[in-house]
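Retry 2 of 3 after timeout on previous attempt. Resubmitting structure tokens to design endpoint.
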């Protein structure tokens, strides 16, 4: 009778791999009940109940459920806009308050308002953007979202307010937005720099540690950037530091203030001499700051 195979001799079972995007979806809080955009009524009205489906019932919410003064009811789960007809129209009556919900944008959908904010200031709020979706708002109000509660995969955020990010919990601002998209797939644009730097420019929000990359903390304050930026030279210095924070072949960078417009982008890791030059510049600038 042949001897049984040892553990080293036994053939290995084929491994199953879960795509990164699917993994993010599995980890998101949207496994609970959610409001799903269908666009079944007019493919445009954000507050028309017939444009939505409640996964708890499989039906549209009861007419009169949505109150534009409150913006959206608590659904104890999520608000998903990644399929269905059209895109929700602008929310023109006030801020879009998502309460204790996670907001998911995808499928190339556009959600926005030129004058109001996305209010994600409840403790359980989360923000997930993928599929080349666009969020165009005056600002984003947050509480203390952690890297596990926000994920920016692909698409754009455009912010037109003087203060692009506000928070009701200053001690919890760091790493509120986890950018997980590949180089060239995600940008944040701030189009109103009339208020100057003074803790309001997108660049200074980066300095304050609002963003992480693939779950890796990027908080320039730990490297000596403890005071508000006051000039474009400060932004150049900050970019030198960002170039040293490379994860999975990419890093964050800020554009110049051109015509009152600033862009935060994910860029690929440079190679060869360019990489050495960037790293050296970052170290030099870091020493100057210190």
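Retry 2 succeeded. Sequence:
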């Amino acid at each position: 009778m042949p001897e049984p195979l040892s553990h080293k001799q036994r053939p290995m079972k084929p491994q199953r791999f879960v795509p990164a995007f699917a993994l993010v979806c599995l980890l998101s809080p949207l496994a609970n009940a959610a409001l799903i955009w269908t666009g079944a009524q007019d493919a445009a009205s954000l507050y028309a109940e017939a444009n939505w489906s409640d996964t708890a019932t499989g039906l549209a919410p009861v007419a009169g459920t949505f109150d534009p003064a409150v913006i959206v009811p608590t659904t104890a789960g999520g608000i998903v806009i990644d399929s269905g007809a059209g895109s929700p129209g602008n929310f023109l009556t006030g801020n879009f308050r998502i309460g204790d919900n996670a907001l998911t944008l995808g499928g190339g959908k556009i959600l926005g308002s030129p004058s109001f904010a996305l209010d994600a200031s409840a403790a359980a709020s989360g923000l997930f953007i993928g599929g080349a979706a666009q969020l165009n708002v005056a600002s984003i109000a947050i509480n203390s979202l952690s890297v596990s509660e926000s994920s920016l995969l692909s698409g754009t955020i455009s912010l037109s307010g003087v203060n692009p990010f506000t928070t009701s919990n200053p001690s919890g601002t760091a790493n509120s937005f986890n950018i997980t998209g590949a180089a060239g797939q995600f940008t944040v644009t701030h189009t109103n720099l009339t208020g100057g730097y003074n803790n309001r420019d997108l660049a200074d929000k980066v300095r304050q540690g609002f963003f992480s990359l693939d779950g890796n903390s990027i908080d320039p304050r730990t490297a000596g950037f403890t005071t508000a930026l006051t000039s474009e030279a400060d932004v150049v210095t900050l970019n030198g530091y960002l170039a040293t924070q490379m994860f999975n072949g990419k890093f964050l960078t800020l554009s110049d203030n051109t015509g009152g417009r600033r862009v935060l982008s994910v860029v690929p890791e440079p190679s060869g001499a360019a990489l050495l030059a960037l790293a050296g510049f970052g170290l030099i600038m870091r020493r100057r700051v210190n």
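Attempt log closed. The longest helix spans residues 272-289.
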